[in-house]
Amino acid sequence: MSVISTITVKVPATTANLGPGFDCIGAALKLYNEFKFTRNERGLIIQVSGTEAEKVQTDESNLLYQAFLKLYQYIEQTSPSVKIEIKLGVPLARGLGSSATAIVGGLVAGNVLAGSPLSELQVMELAIAMEGHPDNVVPALLGGCCLAATGLTGWEICDITWHRQIVPVIAIPDFELSTLEARQVLPTEVSRGDAIFNTAHFGLLLRGLATHREEWLRAALQDKLHQPYRQALIPGYDAVEAAAVAAGAYGMVISGAGPTLLALTDELHTPGVATAMRNAWKQVGIKSVAQSLPLDIQGVTIF
Ligand SMILES: Nc1ncnc2c1ncn2[C@@H]1O[C@H](COP(=O)(O)OP(=O)(O)OP(=O)(O)O)[C@@H](O)[C@H]1O
Ligand SMILES: N[C@@H](CCO)C(=O)O
After folding, report:
1. Ligand 2 binding pocket includes 227 (Cβ within 6 Å)
2. Which end of the chain has the lower number of beta carbons within 10 A, N or C?
3. Nearest atom (ligand 1) to Cα of 182
4. Does a structural domain hold residue 84?
5. Cβ–Cβ < 8 Å for 265, 169
């Protein structure tokens, strides 16, 4: 069997939670990180280019490399020495699944270089264990919008129908919010009322996404498990939400753990919603980049 000496893995950004689906739903977006691994006898080399490249670690602590090592640990083999070239398109710590791209990229690259001993399901389980929740890594691997739930013997993954007329618009501010910090503000227990609220609204979200029925979508994006606690970490949240809705969005939510904000709208209102979100943030002194990003339906690609 010939030994593979180089491989490139392209992994999409993801937006998790979609309001009431905290820690269980996410969608892949057409924004990518690319990771090239080349066997290299002279020890670890990590080179980074692209968006905010200077912020990524270039030593053994790099998350992408840690995931690569994890794969080899799991299959009980010594990892090869590699040169890694990272091309960043997904901004870091903004709620767009940058850590998931690194985890998925490192595991998938490691698996291919090792001769593909693990199935896609095994790689997915390792990725979920590393990230701690499934809602970014699963769509990053599979593409589209995915729901992950613990089954009786392992994870159950459902692909969620996303009506083609529903367009995501994201506004990415120029400040970071780590997932760790955004999880620390959450209560460990919630009331029965809040649990029922989210159960009902999550059901409504799934039906709203499938049907594009506007009144369902407008109501469905509400959440009581994480957003009320996280909004204080995102200055201007209320103003950006009001501007997005006034410009024609069905509603707005925090993308992942934030601070990126995600509005759902239709094709016609997309430019107006993006401009309104950017302007609302500008008025409170925050620079942002706002744009529509279609769903990626392919997930991780290898070449
Ligand atoms: N391409 C990468 N290579 C190496 N490490 C990365 C890469 N991308 C992200 N990371 C690591 O992940 C951290 C960001 O993870 P964090 O979970 O806080 O945010 P996120 O994944 O962007 O957002 P969210 O999980 O809310 O979608 C970075 O600070 C960095 O340490
Ligand atoms: N579900 C996760 C996504 C961010 O990684 C959270 O909201 O904390």
Report:
1. no
2. N
3. 26
4. yes
5. yes
